[in-house]
Each structure stands twice: as structure tokens, then as C-alpha cells.
Amino acid sequence: MPNLWHDADMAAVSRIGGRALAALLPDLHTQRGPVYAALCDAVTALVLDGRIATETRLPSERELAAALQISRATVTAAYDALRDRGYLTSRTGSGSYVTVPPGSRPGPSLARWRPDAGAQDLVDLSCAALPAPPGALQDALPSAAAALPRYAETEGYEPAGLPVLRAAIADRFTARGLPTAPEQILVSNGAMHAFDLVLQLQVGPGDRVLTELPTYPGALDAIRRAGARTVTVPMAGTGGWDVAAMRATLRQTAPRLAYLIPDFHNPTGALIDPAARREVLRTARQTGTTVVVDESFVELGFDGRPAPTAAADSAVITIGSLSKPVWGGLRIGWVRASADLVHRLAALRAAIDMGGAVLEQLVAAQVIGRLDELMPARVAALREQRDALLGALARELPQWRVSEPQGGISLWAELDAPLSTALTMLAAPVGVIVVPGSRFGVDGTLERFLRLPFALAPERLDEAVRRLAGVWHRLDRTGVPARRLVVA
Ligand SMILES: Cc1ncc(COP(=O)(O)O)c(C=O)c1O
Asked: Among residues 266, 193, 200, which one has the least CA distance to residue 412?
């Protein structure tokens, strides 16, 4: 099968330096097998999960050896192994470029790659998202279609969103106890777009942005793209925020912005209690930090829906979306902020994409009015799936410590060895796609962790955990040399 990504004439789009690559790698000496093989594995994982884009030029062997303080021969051996396996191509006189082996396919999200796993039955645990509730979109279509001709008579550009949808989103905030006017809502193409707009308006190159550690990888990518520096605060060992650490980091670094997911945090599923939120908000006010709260999962609580964080502090910018409660394919999200900020965001947005699609917004306006009716079935299914995943992990991998999510779509597992990348590599050939813990942080740490979504039916989750346990026990017992773990 032809592989366009091997085209040697394709221009290099970027390069990564030795220090930057070293910062993304796990501690190679804690991995199984020879160091060169661990390096080859780690780079492979970075390519597969999209942290190093294809056509990126890797540092020279000498530069990487110096950055990692290992011998040049070790880096040469790693690059040779990457080349053998189809992840690196060298061009005389111009260096070594990242590529993917023939048969690799783009994954469903976040620019990930899927290695060729043959025809086997795949269980994909790489994405924390769900299909649409049956019928929800179809049911909304007739009245959306009926309203469309009226809009078709106008020019159709609404950078802040259709008034009918802005009002529906505002009403939902008001019903949750946070009085909101339609002028305080900007409709975006999803929560990611909403965050990106806020970053563009509020953050400049070199500014600091605080996040939880772990956090949603898409947010980390957006912060990096904005040229800002990420300052992370580890979540508490018991789950939830380490409030003292968060307040200390706010005081020490006075970040421009803090991006937080207090409502069923991705990836841990934690729900932050109101007192902790208030303390952090108070400190953020003192340090002049704008707090952005991502409410993507707020509708997916197992014990009800938390109050909006912005009710405790009117300066909080809230972003949200229909992607998790309804469907990512709708591409409908929002920002809730002051009317003035929304106006400025709309002006910025007009210069980027002019506005969202009208028909999708009309569908969303219908669906949002039915959320209370739609959520119970979705939440009940998620609860059952969470319990199935927790049960399977307790049975098959009791040595892992797992968070017990109070909502959301994923849990966070602490492995009994820092081998998340090696596990990811070994899991692919047995048909389980997982993302290593390090994807949820800014550097190669979090190798001891794995994010496991419970977006699939209980029997699929059982099957996935059974396969993962088989791989883990092999890794654990025999210390399989890392070079044999590389996806061929
Ligand atoms: C915390 C968080 N925010 C935002 C997004 C992206 O959402 P959207 O599809 O609305 O852009 C995700 C998707 O996984 C997420 O987990």
C-alpha cells in the first residue's frame, strides 16, 4: 500500500532540539532492557500519540547524546532501530526525520497514529468520548430544518453565535444557579476552540499558564501553541486538588492564566469540593491570575451536577461544550464570561472563521433544551461501565492503584512500575490502543500512570483489561527486553 508519509520530497515542517526531546522522554534507566531500546520505544510512543509530528527533524545523534548524557553509540543504535521499524528516515546532508511505518493510520483524535494491527479485533481506549444518544440528533433535525429558511434570508455570519443558542446556553447556566445573560455567551466550535480563543486573547508568548498535572493533553498543546509556558501542579495523592500546592504555585509564579477542570477532571474523574475551589479562586484573585474552568464533563456526574464555579467568583471564565454530554461531532461549545470579554472574543473569532455553522447551532439549541431528559440514561450507562472497569482492574491487576471517578469518562491508574510507554507498545499488537500517562503531562514524567476511559460496553472493557493484564504480567515477570516491545 503506498504510504504518502514516506515521500522523501516532503518538506520538513519543524525540528525538535535535543533538550526539548529529552524533556519529553521518560527516565530511560528505569525502563526494562537496554537503554537504546528504551529510547527507541519512547520516541515511537511520542510519534504514535502525536507529540512529535511526522516530518519533524530529530536532533543529531551527538546533540541528543549530550542532552541525555548517554553515549553517542546508544543514540546511534536507537536511531538505527527506529529506522528499521519505519519511524525514522534519513536524508543525506539534512538529518533524520520522523515518519510512520506503512500501514499506520491516523487515529480518531489528537493527531494520533495507529500502528498496523492486522485484522484483529481492536479495543480502542485512546479516546474519552461517546457516540450520540440514540435519536437525540435525528429528533432535533425537523424543527432545526424548519427554522433554517428564516436564517437563510440573512447573511448567516454570527461570530458570537446564533441568538437562540446563546439564550439556551445562558438559560442553562441560570437554571444551575448562575444568572447569565445571552450577551455573556460566545458559541464556539467545541470547548477546545473556546479555550484557544481565550488563550489568543489573554496570553502572550512567554506568559505562564497553570494547569493541573495530569491534565487534558489538548489543553497542553494549545498552551504550547500560544507560546506560553505551562506551570503544573500535581493532583493530590488522594485524588482532587492539592490546595496548598496550588496556592503556593500561584503565589510563586503569578501565572497569567490557570486552566482547571474541577468537575470530573480529565483524566482522574475527580470532583473538587466547593471549599477548595473558593480557596484557589481567592488566591488567584490576589495573584492577578485569570481562572478558566473547563466544564466539559459537568453534566456527567454520578451523584448530580455541581454548581458552576463562576457562581463563587464572577471573574471566572467558563468553557463548556456538548461534546461529552451529547456528541463531539456536533462541534458546539461555548465561553461564558463578562459581556465585554465575549464581545472581544467575538471580534477575534470573526477574524479567524467568521462564525459557526447555522444548522448545527439550530440542532444544538434543540438538544440543549432536552439535556435533563437525555442525561440520566447516559450517566447510568457510564456508571455501569465505570464499575465494570473498576471490577476488571481489581480482579486482573490488583497491584495497580486506581482513582474512583465521581463522574466523567475516564479513570487514572497508578501502575506498580514506571512502564506506561512499554505497556502501550506491547498492548498495540494484542489489539488494545492506550495512551501512556506521559501524554497527560508536559514532560516524560507520569510514566507510572495510565488513563483508562470507560466509554465502551462492560464486556469490551473486561476484554481490554484481560489483554492488558496479560501484557503487564509478561512485562512484570520476565522483564522482557524493551527492544522486543516495539510495534513492528
Ligand atoms: C477536558 C476537555 N476539554 C475539552 C475537550 C475537547 O472538547 P470539544 O470536543 O468540545 O472541543 C476534551 C475532549 O476530550 C476534554 O477532555
From this structure: 266
The alpha carbon of residue 40 and the mean position of all alpha carbons in its chain are separated, in whole angstroms, by 24
d(CA 431, CA 443): 27
Dist. CA 104–CA 371, nearest whole Å: 38
Give the strand order in the sheet containing 95-98. Answer: 14-15, 56-57, 95-98, 88-91
Report the amino acid identity of residue 80.
D
262 lines ligand 1 (CB under 6 A): no
pLDDT tops 70 at residue 112: no
Q: Is the C-beta atom of 364 inside 6 A of ligand 1?
A: no
Cα 128 to ligand 1 centroid, rounded to whole Å: 9
pLDDT over 90 for what percent of the chain? Answer: 73
31 band by pLDDT with thresholds 50, 70 and 90: confident
Cβ(216) to ligand 1 under 6 A?
yes
Could you give the C-alpha distances from 185 to 319, 321, 346, in angstroms and in order? 10, 12, 10
Q: How far apart are CA 76 and CA 64, in angstroms?
A: 10
For the Cβ of 261 lying below 6 angstroms from any atom of ligand 1, the answer is: yes
